[in-house]
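Teaching soon. Got one?

===
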Amino acid sequence: MERNFCMPAQFELLSGSRGEQAFAFRRIAAAEAAQVLALQARVRRFMPDPTQLAGITEAELMESIREDLCLGAFVQDRFAAFSLLVTNRDCPERNLGQKLGHPAGDCVTFDIVFVDPDFRGYGMQTRMLQMREEAAVALGARLGFVTVSPENEYSLRNVRGRGFEVLRRARMYGGLDRYILVKRFAPEPD
C-alpha cells in the first residue's frame, strides 16, 4: 500500500560556506531509484571511511519509495542529496524504535541521508533532517530515532543540533559501531 504524503515540491535558497545555491526538494519516484543508488556509491567513494555510511539496498529503497518518505534535493536536473524517513509503520526490521521495544506507531527512523560532495557546505543535511522531522510530527510520531557512526563528527553535530540525544552505543549493520540517538516529539501518553 503506497502512503500518500502531503509533501509538494519546495524550492529554497540555501546559504553556507560555499555561498548560495537554489535547491528543489521533492519526493523520489520509483523511476529514480537507480539515481539514488548511484549517488550513494559516489558519496561513498569520497568518504575517508565508507563504513560511516551504512547504506541502503535496492530492495530497501523500493520498499521505502512505496511506504516511507524518500526525499531528494536537486539543482536543476542534477541529484544533489537524498534522505529517508522510515515511517511509523509495523516493520521491526527498519523501525528502530519498534526494534527497541516501543510501539511502532509511536516511532519513526531517520534512516539515511547523503549529499553529493559537490553540494556539501550548504546545510543540506540539517535542512533535510528538519523536513523529515516536520513529516514525523505530521504522522503523529512521538519519538524519532537515528544512528550515527561515532567517527562521523559532522552528522553527529547535525543531529545533536536538532535536539537528538545519545541513547546508547551499539554494534549494528553487520558489526559497525554506532550511536543510537532519540528525539521526543510528543510526551508519553498518560
